[in-house]
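*** Query protein ***
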Amino acid sequence: MKHASTITRHLVGLLLALACGAALALPRHLPVPGGIAVLELAGAAAPQVHFDGRPQPVVRENGRWFALIGIPLDSVPGPQQATVDDGGRQRTQAFTVRARHYPTQRLTIPDARMVTPPPELAERIVAEQQRLDALKRHFSPSPAPATDFALPAAGRLSARFGLRRVLNGEARAPHSGLDLAVAGGQPVRAPAAGTVLAVEDFYFAGRTVVIDHGQGLLTLYAHLSQVAVAPGQAVARGAALGASGASGRATGPHLHWVVVVGGSAVDPELFLRRP
């Protein structure tokens, strides 16, 4: 019996370790514009890391520290460096941003006001863009966030991150998120634990929820038909955030999912496990 009890304890410990490892699985290292540079950091204590003047998430896995560097989509390929503050001692850590080609997507939006808004809406749109920019820069010095994400909705991956958008024949900003093809009214769920940072109703993004996962790791859900959470609310992995829809600028019901790392929108697929 004693031997069986020992085996049981070992099995429980192994299962817990595997569970913790799964929860802290690192995103995929892909140092390209719109990607993530996963940099291993020396030292026993948690350092602070900045890139392009912005703080970046630092996580620990298997006893080692890693910085997750969000690379802006408009970055120029070439050598870059992050600043590491390790107990008051500053150093730099170099990495190289590789080139990446993103294809072009051409869409027709029936409502021309959603492509070229009328002048009377200019002030609103500028204010909303400033609000979005401020949300993306949000950084909470919380414990290391979970980085093993689940898809927030059950649907096919449609418009991928980084697509060069041409709307009604006019070039527009690249696609800053990942679209999931889901019918209107389908559940949208948190891919990992976090706190609701904001609930907004934007002209282009429609009904929007922003989740703070900690240390500059944020997720955003746009074009919702319904919202089921409020700012400041803690949410667990899998918690209902609302329902998919077509609010704002959308050609039809779908979920537009954005992942922000250290102030920059990055490819959400880097946080998903490969099949």
